[in-house]
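Journal club side-thread
Mid-discussion, someone asked how the predicted structure for our own chain would compare to the paper's figures. Pasting it here so we can look after the session.
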Amino acid sequence: MSDIGRIIVNTGKGKGKTAAALGTAFRALGHGHKVCMIQFLKGQGKYGERLMAEKFDNLDWFICGRGFVFRKENIDDDRKAAQKGFQLAKEKVESDQYDLIILDEITYLIHYNFVDVDQIIKLIRNKPKRLSLILTGRDADPKLIEVADTVSSIDSIKHAYDKDIKAQKGIEF
């Protein structure tokens, strides 16, 4: 990888922010780079991308969430899981053993007041120079957008969910 890593933010209300990050991850893996995926809100499950990830020696995958946070019940447990995940993210960033780290759904940590945006900015600014980071999730904080090199907004024009079409294996998970 380059001597100077990139900060990439994939945000917006559309489908495909994580998929775009994974596209970059597979590109990096193809060049023999070491990649780490840290998922903050997605819970356990047999997602297709996780099943595929098991086939790559240079890809480490960590699930740090309990599932999407839609209700206020058990919010303290969600907060603890998110903060524990953020500590793991700090360890992985500081380890300097990766070329690319994806912080999947990290914007929700700010949105739900689980982690302060300034802590995330500090992590970004103190990363090893060569490390690239991809941050995903809706409603990226303006401070994340400001510090990023590349920001993509993925907007929804139309979604199958709007027609009550359920998630499909191989497409949504």
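Post-session note: The chain has one domain: 7-152.
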